[in-house]
Design goal:
With 281 residues, the protein is α/β, with parallel strands linked by helices. The protein is built from ten helices and ten strands. It folds into two domains: 2-142, 3-Layer(aba) Sandwich (Rossmann fold); 152-275, HUPs (Rossmann fold), CATH 3.40.50. A ten-stranded mixed sheet has the order 3-2-1-4-5-10-9-6-7-8, sandwiched between helices.
Length: 281
């Protein structure tokens, strides 16, 4: 049975992810939704006695478990297959990554409010941290998103081996009766010779069209110095349901001086972003 993992903190952002998870589970044969909540026990005020500290922490756990139980009941009323609810103690990002390692879901769906102001520089969101550290598919959903059918997909590609196979697998997330059109976009930022990149694009097109059960596809080549800005502009031009990124893993030094496109897109989330990290390297 395939698992769809949906972490929740009961905020508006995570409720958007829950709606997406319900829709995906109901249209995916053999899928089971797992609702996941983590609670963190912060250091209590210094003046509290030990008994009061236990009560303080107990209320946090009790409130989280109560909220999850109520959400489970509401979600089960909308699902074809009853969901599973899991509640653990731990820091949000660490606990979610542990849950992904345990359940090995076909997809994890997270909500995000994005990060603003100084948060963007120093902290970022939980979803952004999970996106940086995971090696499994992750769908990050903005709080204002409505559930779409994955009919119009914008796929930002650097022609990596495997991107063409990921495009074919997107049918598993789309409504069975609906069409699937993927627009591949490659942004040439001037760091490589344009002719070299165009040759890679032609080779990528041949690989993509040769994949069995390939969806309807279009290929665009854009010259622009900032990759994330070019992708954001393209999102504004078309009525896309989702943006797909297949980022490679980046070490801390490269992230510091050359922020990844996926990290930038999660800061300015306007449509759901599906991240499918490539292998280490």
């Amino acid at each position: 049975m395939s698992t769809i993992l949906v972490p929740t903190d009961f905020s508006d952002g995570s409720m958007a992810a829950v709606r997406y998870g319900i829709a995906l589970a109901n249209r995916t044969e053999g899928a089971k939704l797992v609702l996941f909540a983590a609670y963190h026990l912060p250091p209590p005020p210094a003046e509290l006695a030990w008994e009061a500290i236990q009560q303080f922490h107990g209320r946090i756990e009790e409130d989280t478990r109560k909220g999850l139980a109520e959400l489970e009941s509401s979600v089960n009323a909308q699902l074809k297959t009853p969901c599973e609810a899991v509640c653990v103690q731990g820091l949000a990002a660490d606990a979610i990554l542990d849950a992904m390692a345990t359940h090995r879901p076909m997809l994890t769906v997270m909500g995000s409010r994005g990060a603003t102001g100084l948060e963007r520089v120093f902290f970022g969101s939980v979803a952004a941290e999970v996106a940086q550290r995971t090696e499994q598919p992750l769908l990050v959903v903005p709080a204002a998103a409505t559930v779409a059918k994955f009919e119009q997909v914008l796929f930002a590609t650097d022609f990596k081996e495997g991107d063409e196979n990921l495009a074919a697998r997107l049918r598993g997330y789309a409504a069975q009766e609906g069409p699937l059109h993927i627009t591949f976009i490659h942004v040439a930022d001037g760091k490589e010779p344009t002719l070299h990149e165009r040759a890679h694009l032609e080779a990528f097109q041949q690989r993509a069209r040769a994949v069995a059960d390939a969806p309807d596809m279009a290929f665009e080549f854009v010259r622009y110095p900032d990759v994330s800005e070019a992708v954001e502009d393209r999102l504004q031009d078309g009525a896309f349901d989702v943006l797909v990124l297949a980022p490679g893993h980046r070490n801390w030094l490269s992230r510091l001086f050359d922020p990844s496109v996926s990290a930038q897109m999660l800061k300015h989330l306007t449509v759901p972003v599906l991240l499918s990290p490539s292998a280490q390297g």
